[in-house]
Amino acid sequence: MKKKKSLYNPDFFKNAEKVMGKKRFTKAIKEGEALTQELRLKMARELLGKNQTDLKGMTQPEVSKIEARRDLKISTLVKYAEALGMQLKITFESKSKSGVDKKIKPILVLG
User: Fold this and answer.
1) Does residue 104 lie in a domain region?
2) CA 41, CA 69: separation in Å to the nearest integer?
3) Are 54 and 84 a contacting pair, CB within 8 Å?
4) How far is the C-alpha of 22 from the C-alpha of 39, rounded, in Å?
5) How many domains does one find in the chain?
6) Does the N terminus or the C terminus of the chain have fewer Cβ atoms within 10 A?
7) What are phi and psi of 6, to 5 degrees?
8) Is residue 26 a part of any domain in this protein?
9) Within a domain: residue 111?
10) Is the separation of the CB atoms in 68 and 42 below 8 Å?
11) How many angstroms separate the most distant Cα atoms in the chain?
12) Alpha helix (H) ranges present in 1-111?
C-alpha cells in the first residue's frame, strides 16, 4: 500500500521567500495578516450571532469599513468591541519560545 504524501512542509515560508523574492514575499505576508485581522473581527461578530446592523451605536457602513480596514486605531477597536458588548484587551507576547511571555500579564484592558 502506498503511503500518502504529506502536504505539510515546515520550510514553506523559507521556500516561498526564495521563489517569490524578499519584496513580493514581504508584501504577501502583510496582505495575509491584514486579511486575517479582517476575518477575526467578522468571525467574532458572527460567533455572537450579530450582523453588521445589530451593533449599537454604529452604522452598517461603519462596521463594514472597520472589518475591511487594514490599520485600525485603538479607539476604533474599543468602539467596535463595546458595540459587541465586549471589551478590548491588548497583550504583548514573546516571539521566542523562552517562556518569558508567560510571566507578563495583560498590559491594557480598554473599554
Assistant:
1) no
2) 10
3) no
4) 26
5) 1
6) N
7) -75, 140
8) yes
9) no
10) no
11) 61
12) 12-20, 22-47, 60-68, 74-83
Q: Which three cell numbers stand for residue 37?
A: 485581522
The pLDDT value given to residue 13 = 76
Are residues 107 and 89 in contact, defined by beta-carbon separation less than 8 angstroms? no
| 17 in any annotated domain | yes
Exposure class string for 37-53: b at 16+ Cβ within 10 A, else e: beeebbeebeeeebebe
Tell me how far apart the alpha carbons of residues 48 and 62 are, in angstroms, rounded to a whole number.
18
Alpha carbons 66 and 52: distance in angstroms, whole number: 11
Polymer length in residues for the chain: 111
How many other CB atoms sit within 10 Å of the CB of residue 5?
A: 6
Average pLDDT, consecutive stretches of 10 residues, N- to C-terminus, the chain (111 residues): 61 81 85 72 90 94 89 90 89 65 58 54
